[in-house]
Amino acid sequence: xxxxxxxxxxxxxxxxxxxxxxxxxxxxxxxxxxxxxxxxxxxxxxxxxxxxxxxxxxxxxxxxxxxxxxxxxxxxxxxxxxxxxxxxxxxxxxxxxxxxxxxxxxxxxxxxxxxxxxxxxxxxxxxxxxxxxxxxxxxxxxxxxxxxxxxxxxxxxxxxxxxxxxxxxxxxxxxxxxxxxxxxxxxxxxxxxxxxxxxxxxxxxxxxxxxxxxxxxxxxxxxxxxxxxxxxxxxxxxxxxxxxxxxxxxxxxxxxxxxxxxxxxxxxxxxxxxxxxxxxxxxxxxxxxxxxxxxxxxxxxxxxxxxxxxxxxxxxxxxxxxxxxxxxx
Length: 329
What we know:
Order of helices and strands: EEEHEEHEHHHHHEHEHEEHHEE
Strand content: 15-25%
Helix content: 25-40%
Radius of gyration: 21 Å
Number of helices: 11
Oligomer: single chain
Structural class: alpha/beta
Mean pLDDT: 90
CATH class: Alpha Beta
Shape: globular
Number of strands: 12
């Protein structure tokens, strides 16, 4: 089997707070191949962004990676010296953040911010060469009048243009992996469609792998090859988008699917009963069982493993323990 470009293996990310331990990421295993788009979905607080932050090394105290391994292109990031890891981030691995207004420096022009990303990772490049590359990147992501926009500040740009600047900054060094954390949340549906189309074109042209973190299953359907569904710090279901959408495995994924608005239906919008549990006080057994319509007595006592519902389609649910697949090794 081809070695994955990014391989997250049994990752544990914990926040050591005054009130107790918050296991934001609890034994997550994810693989992304070169040139592949992989979606990570789940409700707020399920550990999606913390998984991305763990990969990028952007965790702040009291949070830290205290278990598992992260490999990129065969190199172990979790054992890499800080200086070497900094040279990798933003160069071979880039990230688009959820809100560009808080990610861009408000007192530096957007052109200079993209130029500095180039100069940081290309020490033999002159400022003039970096500016030319930055302008090319602006044109590539569809920023009109690139030379004028180069000298403007973030507050002078619309939300869609700021997000295009973020994509230009993330792509300008030619990364092998792009992590997109809710890249279209703050945009209207028309601009969202443009940004997704742009990202797909760039991915196909450059062969970049994408980790797409989102709440939007519509984005997953049109953009991603494979999908991981997370809940309370764990992966509950994984497989190809086609397989999961055609034959939903986990009750939580079923609830997410049923919660998608249907403009033709007159029925009241479905919502998953109950609330996401506090990460300080997780339920015993399956973390989803207090909200699950199929829960059994066993679910409240034991935590299920991942079972193979069909080839390549894994579900963390006791419903698949017998007769529907074998336990994943």
